[in-house]
Amino acid sequence: MKTVPILDVHSAARLVKDGDTLLQGGFGMTGNPVHLMHALAEIGTKNLTFVGNNTGETGLGGGRLLRNGQLKKLIGSFFTSNPDAVKAAQNGTVDYELLPQGTLAEAIRAGGAGIGGFYTPTSAGTPLAIGRETKVIDGVEQVFVKSIRGNVAFIRAWRADTAGNLQYRMTENNFNKAMATAADLVIAEVEQIVPVGEIAPEFVHTPGCFVDYLVQATLTLEDLGSSASVSSSKKVDESRMNMARRALAELKKGDVVNLGIGIPTLVADLITDEQGIILHTENGMLGVGPVPADGGGAMDYPVNAGKIPVTALKGSSYFDSADSFAMIRGGHIDVAIMGGLEADEAANLANWAVPGKPLLGVGGAMDLAKGAKRLIITMTHTNPDGSPKIVPQCTLPLTATGVVDMVITDLAVFGYPNGKLTLLELMPGATLEEVKAKTSAEFLMIE
Fold this sequence. Notes:
By secondary structure, this protein is of the alpha/beta class. The protein has two domains: about 10-215, Glutaconate Coenzyme A-transferase (3-Layer(aba) Sandwich), CATH 3.40.1080.10; about 240-445, Glutaconate Coenzyme A-transferase (3-Layer(aba) Sandwich), CATH 3.40.1080. It is built from eleven helices and 24 strands. β8 and β9 form a beta hairpin. One of its GO terms (biological process) is ketone body catabolic process.
């Protein structure tokens, strides 16, 4: 059995050269090789192409390299959460390529498997498909995506043995497993290094043949940024709760359900054990429970797609982001409940880009909109300026075409029976006259 060299964090970081493509594991700061990234920031290696779901928080992880001017290009899924990334994109100091989260994960997995690329229905008909080859396969428009490989991958695992076998903990798996296969040089930052044989074979998530170097580094609360503790900023009022209750009424026992951020997260607070609904989060967990009652954070609990610590129900499971999106695209998610900016008469959805802001944050919305068996949108009926959100044709950048099954607003519930936008019912306190006045789309009414 081979022995993998163990390096200090700065010696490992020096293996990255100017101009390299660097893969960085992590979802937010969860499973993020933050110590390696900070060592690289101190060394000053420059002109790097960064590949990761996001750059970390402001001044943390990849965010520190971005602030230092060490990154020339960003390739990822969600950079909007880092104001430095938004500013850098606006002033042109970095190039960027935005990919849907599932496409990013699959491109990395393909790169590690020696596959040149693949076709996916995700992003077809949206701005992210512009300039890419498309093909109709079995009647479905699909977009070609080239695989991704890096010169170096920085990943984070919970445990390693001296042969380089890795074990991930809870939702710290995310992009790390795929990235461990997809770089010429793989450096694993780990919490613990144990003698070979102490990790049982069935608990090895990444075999040691993928790992070139190990670095031992202990996580602290400061390393996790805002994921360190449960957020108390969830916006709750009666109108939003009415929408959440109405969405819950659409779910059936045994449904596997993905909840988006915003109003959809309120549905989770209403689900009881008796209802038997299984919550999925795209960063790698099935069987999501409520937030920890003890106030604990990401040091002790998994996190959901909103990077909020959650509990695990009996029968829960963890997996990596590539497998999670395979579940989504493969039709194994019964219902997705998502927020929206616009929905239109043709069941098109726009929910990821706002005019005047860089298109820096698509996340998993495109994959879920295309892949879930049923899509429910919850949103306020109008924008703050009173303009309608249910429109004849979406004017904002599209998330997906022809995918919406139901729209629940603070005023009404709409569906698409026979492919036609139809008012199904009014919400508490709303009138038909108000709905007509605040809806620019043409709609039918259920008889």
